[in-house]
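Reviewer 2 asked us to include a model.

Predict the structure of this chain.
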Amino acid sequence: MRVLLDECVPRALRAELPGHEVKTVAEAGWAGVKNGGLLQLAAKDFDLLLTVDRNLEYQQNFSGLKLAVVVIEATSNDVAVLRPLMPAVREAISKAQPGVVIRVRTPHADAPAPLATIAAARSPRTRTAGVNHDSKSG
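Predicted model (structure tokens):
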């Protein structure tokens, strides 16, 4: 899968995505491009955008966009904080679909593993799935 790392995602995480073609926004020549424009550009050359921008799905319209998005929700974008979430990110990438935002977040104290929330952005159908395989559909 062709994965674009957003500007705030440490490029060291590229090593955590074996088997994928991974580039950073800067490597693609799009440093400084705002989210709406970035999504349009990325949809032409990539399958998935990996970001830590929690507000992206609320600020942008994903309908008809041929790009999947994985949002990592963590306390910081430091590699040491994000690296433990990468197994859940890899699983989220394997389930990614165009026009769908998947959120991977740090688990609550009682949860056994990082969780992923899968939602069709700006669409009435929404699913939530735990990466720990305790999934619910709705």
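The chain has four helices and seven strands. Residues 87 and 120 are 22 Å apart (CA to CA). We have added this to the supplementary material.
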